């Protein structure tokens, strides 16, 4: 009786835990957005006439208004920078931020990373590979982010690749490695499948692909549940 009860509790936990964590993360993001939105309204109210101040501050209590305005602002910004005039404004903004001490170091670094990760023409996170890390005989999944260049490439005799090794279960932190191309084993799994595999700490294994030398369609069918 006790074993069955524990089994049912664990089964129920596995159903509700992902949803609970998702809701919690979204709630935290919503709190941050609403906090920033409330601060902006408070700052704006300081320069508004007294007759409009109370009505403006009441907007802080409208649920989800900060998210709606943030989404609208992002869409409007995207439309603006999609044309020549918007590109010129963006260039001037980047130039301004790059000339401010301290700020330029942070801004430039974050911009380079974001442009690399989210650019449709970039190579970041386009390929999942298998590498030996943190020691020989210990394997982990990594993502190819490009190839070394500049001074670093001058010190490397053979072909190398730049890799990002994410941590688990939080893949937003990790390690940057430069390894010989010969030591990297390409994987058939997609980047999304590799991320799920990492986040689940290896419990959600990707399906075998038809081009996988270790297993074809028959192997994939055998691995399907039920």
What key attributes describe this structure?
SH3 type barrels, single chain, 5 strands, alpha+beta, flat, 5-stranded antiparallel sheet, 226 residues
Textual characterization of the structure:
- The model is unreliable at 217-226 (pLDDT under 50).
- The longest helix has 44 residues, at 2-45.
- With 226 residues, this protein is α+β, with helices and mostly antiparallel strands.
- It is built from eight helices and five strands; from the N terminus they run H-H-H-H-H-E-E-H-E-E-E-H-H.
- Helix content is 53%, strand content 13%.
- It has a five-stranded antiparallel β-sheet, covered by helices on one side.
- Strand 1 and strand 2 form a beta hairpin.
Quick one: biggest sheet? 5 strands, antiparallel
User: What is the radius of gyration computed over CA atoms, rounded to a whole number of angstroms?
Assistant: 24 Å
CATH architectural arrangement of the domain at 128-209? Roll
Helix/strand class: alpha+beta
In whole angstroms, the N-to-C terminal distance is 26 Å
Q: Summarize the helix and strand pattern as letters.
A: HHHHHEEHEEEHH
Beta-strand level of the residues, as a percent range?
Answer: 5-15%
What coarse outline follows from CA principal-axis ratios?
flat
How many helices does DSSP assign?
A: 8
Query: How much is the average pLDDT?
Result: 80
Fraction of helical residues: 40-55%
CATH topology heading of the domain at 128-209: SH3 type barrels
Strand order of the largest sheet: 4-3-2-1-5
Low-pLDDT stretches? 217-226
Determine the oligomeric state from the structure: single chain
| CATH C-level class of the domain at 128-209 | Mainly Beta
How many β-strand stretches? 5
